[in-house]
Each structure stands twice: as structure tokens, then as C-alpha cells.
Amino acid sequence: MGPGLSVAVLSLSFFLSASAASSADDLPRSGQPVFDRVVELVNANFYDGKALDRFNAAVRTKIEPGKTPISATSPVGEVDDAIASVLATLRVSHTGRYKPDTIDYFELSDIFRFAIRDDIRRLFPPDSEVRYPGIGMVTVVEDGLRLVIDVYDGSPAEKAGLLVGDEILTVDGRPYQEIGSFEGKVGRSVYIRLRRERGAEPISIKVQVERLRPLPMFERAIDESVTLSERDGYRIGYVRMWTLSTRNGLDIVADALANGALKDADGLVVDLRGRWGGGPADAAELFVGDTPSFRLIPRRGEATLANFRWRKPVIALIDKGTRSGLELFAYTLRQNAVPLVGQRTAGALLAGRAYVLPDDSLLEIAVSDAVIEKDLRLEGVGIEPDISVVSPLAYAAGNDPQREAAVTEMARMLASSKNGRVGAPLNPAFTR
User: Are 48 and 369 spatial neighbours (Cβ–Cβ below 8 Å)?
Assistant: First the structure.
């Protein structure tokens, strides 16, 4: 197990029934069903009761007579803004509302499928499998530019040549929408107009649209990320842990290390710059655990890998995408003298649960605090890297200085070991 936390605490689908902070009849009400349900659920389930006075005070400012009080007849946009505003007063991670015009909505619906099991067949007919039309690309708006921040390994976007840092201009001649740009186009191609270099003429890329299933897609991305390259005569492996929430993600990595493309690697770069956390609290034991590797050997047939531990050098990549379970993963590696390269992690280590609202949007609420060992909290703090590397996003053209720095450091560590010098931990406070 990881230090001080159970599997249940770090699982994003962790379920907690909390008693209401106050009677539902005492709560401020607007008459707008979605807004009022958010107020109910936060008061009943949010982990920090001391924050509810601040939250409810913000709610009252939205419903009391004023310029635009929230009511049963309020426009959708005003309701959305009011919900976002009152949730922001809680000032924590794992708390937010997601609508079905966003990729986050579908990915979190699959991660939280147990928590929303009473609604999932209705939301995703006919078989309860979460799907959405897309190409495996995630964007953010930075300084007014719509930029690609993630391209999932093995996705249509990667195969078409889209790169992190590309500025997305249009899809089929219209403004980009995360879901709307691809709705009704599964099995067909779209034309994405983008700018790859600052001030350059736009280019157009043709991409096939797929019906994406989030958790299977993440497993494919983990598997497709596996690479083995050579640096200074050393074989250096790489794998990206997009999330720990999949059923088979860790097994995919273990098999690649034990039997697959990474079995002959001299050292490994494990990329924790993910999308979501979740997963078991002891996930990092694949790299730092003390239990031995072993196989099950039947009388007939092939041996089966039952447990595997990586015993060679490892370095981890971190940034603000390292959150929740991946953040605990990074903390565990650091406690075992594994160098961390990149930028400070998200500082987002709580347990969340999802609820379906009356308009079928998704509400995530932080339902439990997460404390490591005695009194250490990463929420709002994060983990600083041992080697700090900035990675500018705009017009990066797929360049990844953080990954390059990690590979360079791994080659240095391997050379030091070969020459009889064991490199000291980059941060002397963390020793194996």
C-alpha cells in the first residue's frame, strides 16, 4: 500500500454517504432546479463543513433581490455562471460541474460510472458504455489562443499529425467545439485548420472522427506511448500514465517492462503528466515495492506474470497535469529517491464523487480529505520537481523539453553507475 492512504480514498469513484450539514428545508433556494440541487448536494456531501458558511453566503447573494437574481426563469447561461461562482468559493480540487458539450463530462462519466450507475444506462443507451465523437485531442485557451495541450497516443489526432502547441483555428470552416465539431461525423473525416508557428500561414489537416470510449482509449494511449530509444549508448524506455483510473493500465505497463518493448531498457522515464488521477494508492509499488517479481507456471500452457517489480533506474515527469492519484504516485517515487523532472504538480489530492443533476450535467464534489502519513496534505500545495524545466505551450510543434531533460538525466545516471559512481539523490532530503 502507499503511505497512509487506502485504495478507497484515492479512487475517483470513491463513494461516501455524508450526513447533511443542515436540514434541506433550511437551505437557501432559488426555485431553479439545477442550482438548488447543487446547493443541496454540496451541503450534504462536501468534506469540509467549515467552508459551508462561506458557500451558502455566496448562494444567498445569487438568489436575493438584486440585479440578476437566480430564479426558475433565469437563462441557462446565467445559471451556469452562478453555479460556477458559488462552487469556486469552496477553493478546492475535485469540485466542479461538467456539461455534455465537454470532453471532461464524458471522461469523468466513465471514471465515475459506479457512482452514477443509476443513471448511466439512460445517459448512454443502449449498453451503458460511455462514448463521444472525437479525435483524441484536448485543447486549452491561453492568452486568447485555442492551443492543443494533449494528443492521446494512438488516437486519430496523433495519426493525422496534430501536435501539442498547435493553434486550432477552425474545424470544417467553423469555430472549434469540443463535442459539437465532431457530432454526426463518426466514420468521416474533418478538416482542421491550424497554425503551427507564430505568424505563419495556417495549414489544414484531415482527421478521421471516431466514437471514443474514454477508459479503453486511455488504455490504448498508455500502451501506444511505450517507446525505447538510445541515448549515449544506453537504452532508455518511456511510458506515459495518462490516468490510473483504467482497469488494466498498470498491467499494460508491467507487461511492457517484463515481456514487451521495455524489457531490455537500461532505465525508464515514467511520465505522470496525466489527465486524471484515481486508481489504487499503491500504484507506485510497480517501481519501488519490495515484493519480488514472480510468475505462475501451469503444467500446460504458458507462464503468467503474477507480480512484477522494476528494479532498474527510473525518473518521473511531473507538471500541473499530475493530480490526485498520480500526485500520490509522484510523492511515493520521491520518497524513494526517484528524481522528478518538470514543473510543480497540481496540488489536487482529495477524494471526489460524481452526481447527476436534473439537466443531466455532472457535479463532482470533494467528499473526503486526503492526509499522507501524519499531517501532510498535498491539496493546494503540490510537489516541486528536483529538476525544474519549463515547457512553453504555444507553437511548441510537439517539442517536449521536459521529456528531453528526463532522458538526458537518465543517461547521466546510467553513465555514473557504469563508472562506479552512484549518483546522489538530487534532493538530499529524500533517500532510499
Answer: yes
CB 193 within 8 A of CB 162: no
Q: What is the pTM of this model?
A: 0.90
Whether the CB-CB separation of 250 and 286 falls below 8 Å is answered with yes
> For the CA atoms of 13, 14, 19, 24, what is the dihedral angle to 10 degrees?
-10
Query: Torsions phi, psi of 68, nearest 5?
Result: -140, 70
Contact 328/2 with Cβ under 8 angstroms? yes
pLDDT in tens, the chain (432 residues): 333 333 334 443 443 333 444 566 689 999 999 999 999 999 999 999 999 999 999 999 999 987 789 999 999 999 999 999 999 999 999 999 999 999 999 999 999 999 999 999 999 999 999 999 999 999 999 999 999 999 999 999 999 999 999 999 999 999 999 999 999 999 999 999 999 999 999 999 999 999 999 999 999 999 999 999 999 999 999 999 999 999 999 999 999 999 999 999 999 999 999 999 998 889 999 999 777 766 677 777 776 666 788 999 999 999 999 999 999 999 999 999 999 999 999 999 999 999 999 999 999 999 999 999 888 999 999 999 999 999 999 999 999 999 999 999 999 999 998 775 444 444 433 322
Distance CA 173, CA 66 (A): 41
The alpha carbon of 198 is separated from its chain's Cα centroid by a whole number of angstroms, namely 28
Q: Which residues contact 140 (CB under 8 A, 6 or more apart)?
A: 146, 147, 149, 393
Bond into 126 cis (ω within 30) = yes
Q: Which CATH architecture has domain 132-212?
A: Roll (2.30)
- List the domain boundaries for the chain: 7-118, 132-212, 214-348+375-418
Please state the φ and ψ torsions of residue 366, each to the nearest 5 degrees: -75, 115
| DSSP type of residue 304 | E
CATH superfamily of 214-348+375-418: 2-enoyl-CoA Hydratase; Chain A, domain 1 (3.90.226.10)
CA distances (Å), origin 296, targets 290, 300, 401: 19, 11, 41
Nearest to 222 by CA among 263, 254, 178: 254
